[in-house]
TrEMBL record:
GO MF entry, a single one: oxidoreductase activity, acting on the CH-OH group of donors, NAD or NADP as acceptor
Pfam families tied to this protein: adh_short
Family (UniProt): Belongs to the short-chain dehydrogenases/reductases (SDR) family.
Keywords annotated in UniProt: Oxidoreductase
Protein name per Swiss-Prot or TrEMBL: Short-chain dehydrogenase
Organism of derivation: Sunxiuqinia dokdonensis
Amino acid sequence: MKQRIALITGATAGIGFETAKILSENHFNLIITGRRQDRLEKIQQELENENCQVKTLCFDVQQKKEVDQALASLTEDWKKVDILVNNAGLAAGLDPVNQANVDDWEAMIDTNIKGLLYMTREVSNWMIARQQGHILNISSIAGVQTYPNGSVYCATKHAVNAISKAMRIELAPHNIKVGTISPGAIETEFSLVRFKGDQEQAAKVYEGFTPLSARDIAESIYFVLSRPAHVNIDDLLIMPTAQASARDIFRKD
Ligand code: NDP
Ligand code: 8X3
């Protein structure tokens, strides 16, 4: 394959989908993943063109067996992954630590931390074999700050940052770039997932100010991915203009 290959987890919605779109516009071949097969097929049809082949892998990043089987199903050509965007992730619930649902904690830890690690363990070996690659982990303002009722979500994103910093040191000798993207509030399916499908509660998160769009973040991701070979952007912290910290969003009535 002549074109570079990008593997994006969680490409069925939000940031992952917009990142896939921008990379298809820029002639990357894509491996897109998620748990919703119908969406993966629809996106494959939408993005595939003469300059972009799209491969779909449907699996749950929380399940190591599923991750390993999905990655093992790729042919050697498709294992020449140049870019891994570890994007699949979620917040589940917004509750104080004494009342939160333990299943929500498990889902966030298993997806945001363990899923990212399962993907990275395998794909980084493919990159090490070729002595080239770029791993971009989607973190959050919640990776550098905390907010009430978000203890475990914030902890998972703090973990993403710690893992990324250590990976940067481990992988630099192998000519592999590592970085994080740390956004504030982006209007995606994120809040709908956090509030278990409650549309009213989800909509309230974005009331009275202009949040980031998934396209805003995808454009920044493309900027990071398209720097020259000798430039590594360690982190980009990107907030809506109206958001000054994880807790301070200035809303108009
Ligand atoms: P969306 O809910 O719109 O998209 C999340 C994506 O992750 C979907 O494609 C979903 O696919 C996938 N995903 C979730 N869980 C799993 C799983 N267990 N296995 C495989 N895929 C999974 O949210 P965003 O686009 O906003 O979120 C993307 C990333 O950005 C997350 O890591 C999030 O923490 C982070 N982020 C989001 C912010 C925001 O305000 N929206 C701000 C800062 C960071 P499927 O359901 O098909 O499995
Ligand atoms: C998502 C943004 O502020 O809800 O990472 O944590 S926030």
